[in-house]
Design goal:
Shape: globular
Distance between the termini: 18 Å
Radius of gyration: 15 Å
Strand content: 15-25%
Number of strands: 5
Helix content: 40-55%
Number of helices: 4
């Protein structure tokens, strides 16, 4: 389920079956214009990636809205903020919360997070909606879905 009015109505009526939440986290920066294309491409691909995971695990997963952080900011502070999000999410309660990112820098802070980190090596795409890119995404989605299922 996604963060839409329709899906939230369904969620409220059947939340006892939805035990997993996924928080896609994305870096944000405007100060380095030379990196804007790369940054926005990764955002597009991660959004497609997260949506595909949600579709694959439909009825069991809630896709939380994207979490943005400053790309060159203090990740330890961001980990604290992410833990606040996790605490809010756990009030439902969810048995499993996953943080989904392409940013390998989060691996160093994994121990500071109160959720499971899913780091997937990111890739840049000239056209995230091309058939070739969709096929690459599908291949990685299958692997991540199997990993999530191993927690169930």
């Amino acid at each position: 389920m996604q963060w839409t009015k329709r899906d939230m109505g369904v969620y409220v009526g059947s939340k006892e079956f939805i035990d997993t939440a996924i928080i896609p986290i994305l870096p944000f920066q405007l100060s380095q214009e030379s990196n804007l294309s790369k940054s926005t491409s990764k955002r597009e691909v991660l959004s497609i990636f997260a949506t595909e995971i949600e579709k694959e695990l439909s009825g069991r997963v809630l896709l939380i809205p994207n979490y943005y952080y400053l790309e060159y900011g203090d990740k330890l502070e961001e980990a604290k903020r992410l833990n606040s999000w996790n605490e809010e999410i756990q009030k439902q309660p969810f048995e499993h919360v996953f943080i989904l990112t392409f940013d390998s820098g989060w691996k160093r802070f994994e121990k500071d997070l109160q959720a499971n980190l899913l780091w997937v090596p990111g890739f840049q795409a000239d056209d995230p909606n091309s058939d070739e890119m969709r096929q690459m995404i599908r291949g990685q989605v299958s692997d991540v879905v199997e990993l999530i299922r191993s927690y169930w």
